[in-house]
Amino acid sequence: MYRKIPFYLSLATLFCLPLVIFLLIPQLGFFPFYPSLPSPISPSDELSDLSLLRLASSSSRPYSRLSSSSSRSPKIAFLFLTNTQLHFSPLWQSFFDRSSSKSRFNIYVHSSPSLNLTFRPSSVFAGRVIPSKATSRASPTLISAARRLLAHAILHDPANQYFALVSQHCVPLRSFDYVYNSLFTSSSFDLSDDDKVSAKIGVKLRLRSFIEVHDQSKNHWKRYTARGRYAMEPEVPFEKFRVGSQFFVITRKHALTVVRDRKLWSKFRMPCYREDACYPEEHYFPTLLDMEDPKGVTKYTLTRVNWTGTVDGHPYTYSASEVSPELIHRLRKSNYSASYLFARKFSPDCLEPLMKMADSVIFQD
User: Fold this and answer.
1) 252-260 vs 43-57: helix axis angle to the nearest 10?
2) Which of 32, 35, 7 is nearest to 18 (CA)?
3) Contact (Cβ atoms closer than 8 angstroms) between residue 210 and residue 164
4) Given the DSSP bridges, would you call strands 342-344 and 171-172 parallel, antiparallel or unpaired?
5) How far apart are CA 128 and CA 199, in angstroms?
6) Which of 204, 210, 222, 298 is close enough to 249 for a disulfide, judged by CB 3.0 to 4.6 Å?
7) Using one digit for the tens of pLDDT, what is the confidence trace for 231-260?
8) Which phi and psi (to 5°) does residue 76 adopt?
9) CB within 8 Å of 135: residues ≥ 6 apart
10) Which residues lie across from 299 on neighbouring strands?
């Protein structure tokens, strides 16, 4: 026979149960009691992006190998992600103008819709601003912006085989020809590549993506649980969660992987209830590519960043007084590749001293 539960215990349980649910549900990754945390991406924006991504997903097949007999040279798509004016556009203009061939690159700009970016007709940036949407820090809107840039570049030109994402604070450390040859032809640029056949014959046989990937970092668990204790499961278990740089240089194969993804995006698009650990743009791309093709990524970036003396999660920002030939040479040094190709973060007043030594230092390889 069952013993009867005293009435006062039943009543206490009835009143305590909602409190228990309220305290535990957020830790389990569900947000029914968090109406103050709406998705930063509106349903209309999500639908329009989905239409663009689907179109890009079906536009072409991944690029499998380099072909010297191809009538069209492979290109680098430069993706500029900015919410301000492109302060360093004159320096980038010089970078592109010095290319030995103007048919080896394309440019795409994603800016804040509130900006009216205009360029003179002769500028390489003229007519390169894609339909853009607002972005905000510590939110998946930055992922959406990068995916939009990738989709437009995929659709625009099938010759785009590398996709370099840079910010308004990025500057080149080398000439365009050096960057191009390092990515497409040099068999010794990637010091982490263990392809002994390529090294022996001196010919690059495959393309790899240059993106930073770490499986252990400061506050790794805190970042993983920023949306809730089990919010990322089962699609992204903790042992698969990665951290890396927001900016990258990836192959067309991996660009297609990004625009075709729906599974991981369903997790990373969720809002965080801890903003101090929410940097989805630093997690989504490394996690996705490391899960899909770990041998196809170098696990390091080609953009040099100084993380000493960070302020509110931002890297160190160089000022005009610090710009010198010695700084450029120092920023180029890498333990993973023959050289870093880009660097950030530079304040707008650095443009003048950088332009003064562009020909004599930056573009001298």
Assistant:
1) 140
2) 32
3) no
4) antiparallel
5) 38
6) 210
7) 999 999 999 999 998 899 999 999 999 999
8) -105, 125
9) 81, 83, 112, 141, 142, 144, 145
10) 212
Nearest to 91 by CA among 168, 171, 180, 169: 171
Query: For position 271, which CATH number holds?
Result: 3.90.550
pLDDT in tens, 53-96: 999 998 765 544 444 334 478 999 999 999 988 999 999 999 99
Whole-angstrom CA distances from 165 to 254, 343, 357 are 13, 12, 24
| pTM (predicted TM-score) | 0.87
Distance CA 115, CA 183 (A): 33
Q: Is position 321 within any domain? A: no
Query: Tokens 């790794």, residue?
Result: 220
CB 153 within 8 A of CB 79: yes
Cα-flanking dihedrals φ and ψ of residue 17, to 5°? -55, -45
Domain coverage including residue 144: 43-301
Residue showing tokens 């010198």 = 324
User: Is residue 155 in a domain?
Assistant: yes
Per the structure, the count of domains in the chain is 1
Q: 148 lies in a domain?
A: yes
